[in-house]
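Moderator note: this is an archived Q&A kept for reference. The question asked for a predicted structure of one protein chain; the sequence and the answer are reproduced below.
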Amino acid sequence: MPNKNLYRPNVGIVIFNSDKKIWCGKRIDVKTKDAWQLPQGGIDHDETALQAAIREAYEETGIKSIKNIYSINEWIKYELPTSIAKSKWNGKFIGQMQKWFLFYFYGNDDEINININNQAEFSEWKWELDTNIQDNVTKFRKNVYKKVFKKFNKIIKNFS
């Protein structure tokens, strides 16, 4: 098993709405059909994984009206393609290890702003079904999303 120090500690975020659809964004730096993904980001030294998830959700979506419903305690790892890993984070990491959080969005769509800090990661966003998100995510993230949705789908379905 590769050294865990080769994986960047990160959070992944699933935000669902009252229609039980999931927020996803189209990456601004990817020009293929599999450019859609869920919000995610690094964990700063002075914050917990949950704090990082709340911060990243806001930085990437503008969303503040969320309630933490569930989280996956284990780290879920994935490796980046070598071409990406060499250029990201000065080549320090071969991939990411993520803690995943499930949030319920209780606000209005006009709260959503993918350019809240003038450093947009997404060019567009939508509410989508998990199967469509899995079909349109980059290949190296597909297994992660499959695991995450397997854990979260029943919770989302039964949420009231």
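Archived answer notes: The CA atoms of residues 148 and 158 lie 16 Å apart.
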